[in-house]
Known about the structure:
The structure holds two protein chains of two kinds. Helices cover about 25% and strands about 25% of the residues of chain A. Chain A is of the alpha/beta class. In chain A, the strands form eight sheets. Chain A has a five-stranded parallel β-sheet with strand order 5-2-1-9-20, covered by helices on one side. Helices cover about 60% and strands about 0% of the residues of chain B. Chain B has helices at about 1-15, 15-20, 30-40, 60-70, 80-85, 90-100. The longest helix of chain B has 13 residues, at about 30-40.
Amino acid sequence: MAPPSAASSRGSHASVLILGAGFAGASLAWALKRWAPNLAVTVVAAPERYWTCPFSNTALLAPTDLGTLEVRYDAFSGAGAPTLIRARVRAVEPEHRALILEDGRRLTGDKLVLAPGIELATEAIDGYDDAAATRFPHAWEAGPESLRLAERLRAVPDGGLVVMTIPPNPYRCPPGPYERASLLAWWLQRHRPRTKLLLLDGKDRFTKDALFKAAWEARYPNLEWQGLSDGAGLRRVDGKTGLIETDFDRFSPDLGNVIPPQRAPALLRRAGLDGGQGWCPIEPTGFESPLAKDVHILGDAAIANPMPKSAFAANSQGKACAAALIADLAGVPRPDPILLNTCYSLVAPDAGIAVVGSYAVKGGRLESVAAGSGLSPSRSALGESVTTVRGAEAAHARGWYESIRVDAFREGGPRS
Amino acid sequence: MARRCLPWLALASLPLAAPLLALEPPSTVARWAAACNGCHGPEGRGSGAMPALRGQSADALAAKLQQWKDDPAAATAPGHVMARFSAILEPETLRALADHYGTAP
């Protein structure tokens, strides 16, 4: 007798196994349960506590707010919820659509979706060791690191120097470093008015750069940005002496926030899913790996250019992938994906800006749709209404955050 | 043996779509609504400064989306975000979304 075909094991009894319960993995899991309640959906996530990266820059100003960013996953225990397994994963076997857990368990699904986020490529920075990690907290994954950076900020003397180093593209949350810089400059202006914030950037252009730079010029004389062409490329750090060395200069700041370059986590790279590129290629209709059938990769780990590595994009990809997986399992064509992004950034606690993107599949590639993409209006275009408009957009940023938390994790912050 | 096969034969004689009914890709409107709910709160009921979509009149929602679509330059922040998304909505999806969230006139 012939073994059951893939199609016969599919249909409504099919199973989807997801690695990662961040914005991509959790959004996918809930979208699947909503649109295909009989589908068996299992999510495997690390046992460590998890705080969202969105709004973690504001926690640097008010560290007690960090608790409002924690995701507790309480909703995953309810009826009709995806099954959540908190465990570390030892290996991914793409050819078997399998995850091998650290305790030896082996899980498989008709579809395997990998949404593990990022890994910091610290060895890309000369001299980066444990001492450097302690001396220059990156806080690029929210949580205790954010508190360390907030504490170190408060220890900076007035008249001191704070240095941020910003990696070249691509990395998680393209506008994140510039929002952080804005909020640090805002805090320093009020609490350490003679302290300077220097940004050393590994590139010359960045997202929303004109909007950020205009805000900095209007608000923060204490902030200076240097790009790659200015010699700001990071050469070396020394955690023992506190030295940060660029192509042109060396600095001994009172606080260094070194944001390392990033890549897809080792689990995926060891499984060959990055094709040696550091990040994982996907085809854009269902985010399926071209290197492994029925293995899909979402969120920051995927190469989804021109979509940025943002929480909004991850949420959008989760929903698009859910529709594609259901179509695949039902044996019907995938719908054209709806892929959108909005990155809100605060240039001050009460002032926000946004970049908007819409994406479509053309000739097998993901492309930006010009009519569906744009930026907040410039200061000069807004004139006197700039305060009102930026204030309204900051309020929208907070409204978005509360909404996307409920959408992705089915839980609000403690305040909601 | 023949008896045991009977229910399966009966099932097999149903239209092919029947066993797959439980697994059907979401409609275009359902997928767009899922996108809207990302910012506008569960089922579009609003989230802080993000306005509620549910409870507005369907005609008013459609008119607002159409206005953004027709004249995106007139939208200032934070409306510029919606002007961009309205631009890529097909007319029939725009109307169906307004009907999905909105109340009948």
